[in-house]
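Q: What structure does this chain adopt?
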Amino acid sequence: MAFWREVTGSGLSPFRGEHQQFATLLPPAGDPWLRVQRVASGPGGCHLDLHVDMSTGTLDDAAGHAIALGATVRHREDGLIISESPGGFTFCLVRWEGEGEPPAPVSAAGTTCLADQLCLDVPPGEDFERELRFWAALLDVVPPEPGVGGRAEFSWVGRGAGVVRVLMQRRARAEPGERVAGHVDAGCADLAAATRVHVAAGARVVAQDPWWTVLADPAGRQYCLVARPVASR
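A:
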């Protein structure tokens, strides 16, 4: 948590929840996009929260729509419905509280960086096409945008102004029964400079490409720094 606060320039909200397991990373300007959760067991990971405008329907309405598209509901309580996509990626339906202003990018070492994208890592074959159709319909992006940056393995399924970008990546291979996973991407004006900032804060470089760097945070969670203007929505 200290690592992510440092690299995002964030403060921390009070802890909340029955077991004080939730907190929000508070950006210096704009509305928060990132939250942290202490899990009861297992390695943890990441998931997507979808904020439902209660003036146009209820959480149950949103869950019914997701189920019709192929989702499975795993848990319901007041103000929260936990679901899974057809490929097994966890997402939560929560109440929209009026958030709409993107957080400000973080400036350090002469570059700017903003964690503004969730990448869904999807097994190849029919699983990818099914997952792509599901998220495109759920996020009301029809048709999705294939071939991002000339790379056939990437497809946009959501990148509207003021919202977290959602990107899908078709993995080259996967083990039988492997489910959809996800990781955070941060856009950076200067990839090399941003990588140095994150390594100095405690990250470890896992792999490098001319356009992105894969890192692992101090807990082993992998994420990517991507060379692109952070203001590009």
